[in-house]
Amino acid sequence: MTDLPTYVPPKVWTWNKANGGEFANINRPIAGPTHDRDLPVGKHPLQLYSLATPNGVKVTVLLEELLASGHTGAEYDAWLINIGNGDQFGSGFVDVNPNSKIPALMDHSAPVPQRVFESGSILLYLAEKFGAFIPKDLPGRTECMSWLFWQMGSAPYLGGGFGHFYAYAPFKIEYAIDRFTMETKRQLDVLDRHLADKDFMAGGVYSIADIAIWSWYGQLALGRQYNAAEFLDVASYLNVQRWAQAIDARPAVTRGRMVNRSFGDLHMQLRERHDASDFELRTQDKIEAGKHGN
Ligand SMILES: N[C@@H](CCC(=O)N[C@@H](CS)C(=O)NCC(=O)O)C(=O)O
């Protein structure tokens, strides 16, 4: 093992604001709002406040799938929450999610406007509201829930563990990278074995379990996360590859990936979504071209 920087934890931890790392400017040890700011509200009952990270993409993929399968009540406004600028600490956002993390949803069609936070809870709320993308029989529903909860419990090892120490930490720590690489590869193997004789996570039907897991592990397998495809040898998980590519080919999934995206290719960025026509008319390449009079 390589030499490590020596650090002796003090008796009582204190907040060193300049501790480095990719997210040093937004990480804080206290909850609650930092500033007053109301959230915008658009014309649809469903108001989403989010960003196209894997946790955000889960929800926009489900909403686009619901719309594609004819659930017109799933029309939504999606507002961009720039977590790098601390939008998640505005008072209006904290009212919707006291945990200050995207995604957060308001359903204004509920008898009393309903807030929903935690991406898994949002997926379940929408699947139940529309009676779609969740098996109706108890065994199928239970399997779907088991995998949905598996994703919610497992992805912090991938994102907060592997991704953080492999890609974002200000220096590389072999112990941390080894520990979380081991766990990430084990999780990919769990999926690969499960998918060996199944098309989808809960068996024969595409469900919110697939949407949740694909957003993290499918996109990892497709080489879209942490520039780590080679390091993790993602190509070797053949069943995960087959499943990830099949889901990636769905038009609603492509649209879901575009919503609230403020990074990457401009034609894939639909920073705010208020109408189905926005995918044609309001992607960032078109907005930029309009600004320059093209
Ligand atoms: N368990 C939460 C995690 C949400 C989460 O970690 N969101 C991140 C972006 S992927 C975030 O908003 N980070 C802002 C921050 O930590 O201040 C969920 O699944 O909704």
Description of the structure:
This protein is an alpha+beta fold and 294 residues long. It has a domain at 138-255: Glutathione S-transferase Yfyf (Class Pi), Chain A, domain 2. It is 46% helix and 6% strand. The N and C termini lie far apart (56 Å). Glutathione is lined by residues 26, 53, 55, 83, 88, 100-103, 118-119. Glutathione binds next to loops.
The set of bound ligands, ions and cofactors reads: glutathione
The total strand number stands at 4
Q: What is the assembly state of the chains in this entry?
A: single chain
Q: Structural class per helix/strand content? A: alpha+beta
Let me know the largest β-sheet: 4 strands, mixed
In the sheet with the most strands, the strands line up as: 2-1-3-4
Protein topology:
Elements: E1 46-50, H1 54-68, E2 76-80, H2 91-96, E3 104-107, E4 114-117, H3 119-130, H4 138-168, H5 174-194, H6 208-221, H7 229-232, H8 238-248, H9 251-258, H10 278-281, H11 284-291
Parallel strand pairs: 1-2
Antiparallel strand pairs: 1-3, 3-4
Bound molecules: glutathione.
Output the keywords.
294 residues; alpha+beta; Glutathione S-transferase Yfyf (Class Pi), Chain A, domain 2; 4-stranded mixed sheet; 11 helices; 46% helix; globular; binds glutathione
Outline of this structure?
The chain is α+β, with helices and mostly antiparallel strands.
